[in-house]
Amino acid sequence: MKSLQVYRCLCDETRLRILNLLLEGPLCVCHLAAILGLEQPKISRHLKALKEAGAVETERCYNWTIYRLSEQPNAVLETNLKCLQDMRAEEPLFARDLDHHTRMVGELMAESCCDLPERVRELCRENFQTT
Fold first, then answer.
1. What is the DSSP string of 57-78?
2. Chain centroid to CA 55: how far?
3. Arithmetic mean of pLDDT, 78-92
4. Domain count, the chain
5. Least confident of 24-28, 30-34, 46-50, 127-131
6. Which residues span the domain enclosing 35?
7. I want to staple 30 with a disulfide (CB 3.0 to 4.6 A). Which of 14, 53, 87, 114 is the partner?
8. Which residues make beta-bridge pairs with 65?
């Protein structure tokens, strides 16, 4: 992966907001959409760009795809993620997203915004590292 591809990926506010949330732990598209207040297709397009840049990885949980930060990011991405983590409390938009994440993830898992069957929900809960 080229450094330029990583920087192009990071030059978008929505992608930075997604990465900010994924620093907290894995989420599915429907959770990201609910937390950010955006349409699922828009979130999916951004996740595709993040995946192509090597920033996120996916894991299937039956019909749902769980997104998480890459376990082996390249050096450019790793440096930028550390910078994002350092500034996340200072940036009001990121802080608001984190607050929304904290309030919503428990509700989303309990209510299952994506109508997960109970057995699938239990399997997915094992993958979620909520705050």
1. EEEEETTEEEEEE-SS--HHHH
2. 10
3. 84
4. 1
5. 127-131
6. 3-127
7. 114
8. 60
| Tokens linked to 26 | 């894995």
Q: What is the pLDDT of residue 131?
A: 38
The neighbour count for residue 31, using CB atoms within 10 Å, is: 25
Q: Note the Cα 62 to chain centre separation in Å.
A: 19
Rounded to whole angstroms, how far apart are CA atoms 106 and 81? 25
Distance CA 15, CA 81 (A): 12
58, 66 in Cβ contact below 8 A? yes
Residue range 101-117: mean pLDDT, rounded = 64
pTM of the model: 0.79
Report how far residue 50's alpha carbon sits from residue 20's, in angstroms, rounded to the nearest whole number: 12
CATH code, domain with 18: 1.10.10.10
